[in-house]
Amino acid sequence: MKHLKFATVGFIFTILGLSTLLSSTLFAENGDNDKSRLASLAKFTRVLATIEKYYVDDIKIDEIVKKSIEGMLSNLDAHSSYLDAKHYKDLKIQTEGEFGGLGITVGQKDGALTVIAPMEGTPADKAGVKAGDIILKIDKQSTLSMTIDEAVNLMRGKPKTGIELTLVRDGETKPLTISIIRDIIKIESVYSKMVENENILYVRVVSFDKNIVSDVQDAISKRKNLKGIIVDMRNNPGGLLNQAVGLVDLFVEEGIIVSQKGRVESENAEYKATKSGTVTKTPLVVLVNGGSASASEIVAGSLQDHKRAVIVGEKTFGKGSVQAVLPVVDDEAIRLTIARYYLPSGRTIQAVGVTPDVVVYPGEVPHKTNEFAVKEKDLKKHLEGELKKVDETKDKTKSKAKDKEQESIKIEKEDMSSEGLLKDLQLKSAVDIIKVLSIKK
Which of 177, 201, 259, 406 is most buried as measured by Cβ atoms within 10 A of its Cβ? Predict the structure, then answer.
């Protein structure tokens, strides 16, 4: 990635007017391409100079450049962004583990700030936030023109401080306002139980931290002669790629698990299964839903392509791109999409997701999917209308902490009995499929 970092720094120097850098360092190529790049950069520099000279407010060149970079990256895709000193520091804090926040992963879907998944046991989860909720407001601020980084920065804060989210949820006639108290986010990433009266192991993978593979392997090794294994990745927002690869390797003996492809050759990679890494050939079912994203989609899609597992539930989120954080100066960086993930069959996850082999909706009885039946081109107008409703009414209805549909994904942690399974249709379907697979085996 060294050459990528250099190109980024070189470009920033260029737009600051240091034209001496526009030598062979940036323009080693010949012909019309050189002229086109030089003309484009010269035009950009002229625009910066014009804004600095004529804009109605006194705005300094460094601020103009900052806004230019922010706009440029935000227009590439939903996951590329500029990290100023504060945001870069926040990112480092987040990757180190503990931070004050709500416990939700968000993304841009059809141009709207959407909850990918609430993490189990976190303040957002306990308050009733659901995968697929569209965040219309954070406290009093509209999110319609807000970047993901801006939204995350608003939601993160000191533990024990309050925040209000205004949500648009499919099936609700009006927006919901939910009050949440921030807290230190700590996640129990893996837990396991045996299904009552069945020799079936249930493993819940909440997110992909550094210990997922060892924890799942440990859960499997403690049980002998299993009839089957259910891996539940519903509302799993992803995490570390190496853990996703390692989890697939526990069940697959050979072949590509996932590949990564971008424009820069050094970023291309293939991750393959190893026979030594496989711990079991036991029948396997994987549970997913619209809150399953990134690493969890890689696991589900790869196992599906290898025909190693039956995927049950709902279509996943569709986040299959790779971001790298590239420092620009000591305390600033850019987060840039540099590649996309591809499953063993060659298909991509990005904006497509993984479609289950067996589609089962949550709850005790099937019902319609938890997605808006609004086309992308109409969604912004729809949300603006919902925002107007919120602004016009003073009587905002508070959301209840939990509803029955939310409980369906939680019931298994406390209750793996026959009665408990009936309250989670997706999990019950997984158990039934394991029974069939074990008979065939």
Answer: 201
296 labelled catalytic? no
CB 213 within 8 A of CB 247: yes
DSSP secondary structure code for residue 396 in this structure: P
Q: Which of 81, 192, 292, 294 is catalytic?
A: 294
Side chain identity at residue 374, one-letter code: V
41 within 8 A of 15, measured Cβ to Cβ = yes
Is 330 a residue of the active site? no
Report which of 329, 104, 135 is spatially closest to residue 236, judged by C-alpha positions.
104
- The pLDDT of 350-359, averaged and rounded, is 95
d(CA 74, CA 67): 11
pTM for the structure as a whole:
0.71
Q: How confident is the model at residue 369 (pLDDT cuts 50, 70, 90)?
A: very low
Continuous H helices in 75-128: 85-95, 123-127
292, 319, 423, 429: which one is catalytic? 319
* Straight-line distance from the first to the last Cα atom of the chain, in angstroms, rounded to the nearest whole number: 47
Q: Of 149, 183, 249, 305, which residue is the catalytic one?
A: 305
Quick one: DSSP state of residue 346? S
> Which amino acid, one-letter code, is at 237?
P
Res 410 pLDDT > 60: no
Name the pairing type of β-strands 200-205 and 190-194: antiparallel
Cα atoms in the 13 Å half-sphere on the side-chain side of 432: 12
305: annotated active-site residue = yes
Residue 339's pLDDT is what? Answer: 94
pLDDT of 162 above 60: yes
How far is 338 from 356, CA to CA, in rounded Å?
Answer: 28
| pLDDT > 60? residue 149 | yes
Asked if 82 and 69 count as a contact pair (C-beta separation under 8 A), the reply is yes
pLDDT tens readout for residues 252-270: 999 999 999 999 998 899 9
